[in-house]
Write a structure and sequence with these properties.
The protein has 454 residues and is mainly β. The chain folds into 4 domains: 38 residues, no CATH class; 113 residues, Immunoglobulin-like, CATH 2.60.40; 92 residues, Immunoglobulins (Immunoglobulin-like, Sandwich), CATH 2.60.40; 148 residues, Immunoglobulin-like. The protein is built from 2 helices and 30 strands. The chain is rod-shaped, with a radius of gyration of 59 Å.
């Protein structure tokens, strides 16, 4: 068996110290016991010549880490971990170190704090039971030999030993609550520390009872450190909620302080407008104006007939009739002619300025209010009467019927010395025959009801 010089020197030194004096490595005295070195040399066992390299840690959290390394040329290797920044592990030859991947539970090298976390022929192990934000040192030692006959290679190599530091959960602060409505609210937070590991998720979580977690309703508002805003939705009106910010890294999820708020009452939907009241049942007023002659003469009387009839199926109560007189005439009289359709009862008649106001208690269905209006033209030109009527039904106060006014006008004569002009009604010219100048007979009959200006 070929041995490298360094290994051979180590074996020979051990043999000499043990009192080996013969080529067969027999004890120098029969009473001298055989040592581990005797057994190793007798079996031709030597330590490995190439140490493990490239020790690294991955998937580091607050309590565990995955360790990897590149194997040397030993039959197997043993991995030791210590809570430390420096130092090397030095296992004793011919000593067996039982491994446990939970830190502190495996065999320790003396009282050095180096705990065995792996013993085998592989190249990786996940160590648990670590403390957060703590630095650990890892060393891998190759060895040859079986149980009780191990010869360890304790020299260092590239990347062996190596250090790693566990991380902590992030530090996050819950933001202010604002813009609370019946179903929404605004909040947020600030990740002030990532705990040594990348923050992969952050937001706020909320619940209507207890302390909220990300198992409850929550938002997702990006990653990394720094401030963020959150929009809460789907809330119930007039409900008390608890909310807090959260942030997640490989070590786990951390939460900010719990804040609380109560949603507003649900808005009252706009009510439907009340239905429009029915108009006074059935009445339908028709207002017309017509002239009694085709021509009028300045200084002499001219007459108009104003008729307000009810052509509907119902009565119209409290009817007010307004007649506007032009500035080019003087008012003479207003009369209710005898005969014809049944006249409604007249309750009031007044003249205020250029407006004649007539009030009747009601216009029954099938009846009509007929007025004969007499005026005296004071200047040549158009004569225009404008009338309007309206009703107020006591059963429905808001119900008023405005009847469009009717207009009768006369056109001014063109040229000559004839001081009169033909008249026309609202529906167009209504010639009733020419009158000789000075022979208009629009006189009020004696005994007729009416209002006469003297």
């Amino acid at each position: 068996m070929t041995r490298d010089p360094a290994t051979l020197a180590r074996v020979l030194t051990a043999a000499l110290l043990a009192g080996l004096t013969s080529p067969a490595y027999a004890p120098a005295h029969p009473s001298m016991p055989r040592t581990d070195a005797h057994r190793a040399l007798a079996a031709g066992q030597v330590p490995p010549s190439t140490q493990a390299t490239s020790v690294s840690a991955s998937d580091i959290t607050a309590s565990q880490a995955a360790l990897q390394w590149t194997r040397g040329d030993g039959d197997a290797c043993v991995v030791f971990v210590r809570q430390s920044l420096g130092g090397n592990a030095a296992p004793s030859d011919n000593a067996t170190y039982n491994a446990n991947s939970t830190f502190g539970q495996g065999a320790q090298i003396g009282a050095t704090g180096w705990y065995c976390v792996y013993n085998g022929a592989g190249a990786g192990v996940t160590v648990t039971g670590l403390a957060a934000t703590t630095t650990y040192r890892v060393m891998v030692c190759e060895y040859n030999g079986g149980l009780g006959d191990q010869l360890y290679l304790i020299s260092t190599a590239a990347g062996n030993p190596a250090n790693f530091t566990t991380i902590a959960t992030p530090t996050v602060v819950t933001g202010e609550i604002s813009d609370v409505t019946a179903t929404t609210a605004a909040c947020g937070g600030n990740v002030t520390s990532d705990g040594g590991g990348a923050v992969t998720a952050r937001g706020v979580c909320w619940s209507a009872g207890g302390t909220p977690t990300i198992a409850d309703s929550h938002t997702s508002d990006g990653d990394g450190s720094g401030a963020f805003t959150s929009a809460l939705s789907g809330l119930s009106p007039e409900t008390a909620y608890s909310v807090r910010a959260y942030a997640t890294n490989a070590a786990g999820t951390a939460y900010g302080d719990v804040a609380s708020f109560t949603t507003a009452a649900a808005p009252i939907p706009p009510s439907e407008p009340p239905p429009e009241p029915d108009p006074a049942p059935g009445h339908h007023l028709v207002l017309t104006i017509r002239t009694e002659q085709a021509e009028a003469i300045v200084g002499q009387r001219a007459a108009f007939r104003v008729t307000l009839s009810n052509e509907g199926a119902g009565d119209a109560g409290a009817v007010e009739l307004l007649i506007e007189l032009p500035d080019s005439v003087e008012f003479v009289s207003a009369q209710l002619p005898a005969g014809g359709a049944a006249q409604p009862a007249l309750t009031a008649m007044s003249l205020l300025g250029r407006q004649l106001r007539i009030v009747v208690s009601a216009v029954r269905t099938g009846s009509a209010l007929e007025l004969r209006i007499v005026v005296r033209p004071t200047s040549r030109g158009l004569i225009a009467l404008v009338a309007s009527a309206r009703t107020a039904d006591g059963a429905i106060v808001e119900a008023q019927e405005q009847v469009a006014g009717a207009v009768a006008v006369s056109a001014d004569a063109s040229g000559g010395d004839v001081p009169h002009a033909p008249l026309c009604g609202a529906a167009g010219p209504l010639p009733l025959g020419l009158l000789t100048a000075g022979l208009i007979t629009a006189r009020a009959a004696r005994g007729r009801r009416g209002f006469v200006k003297t």
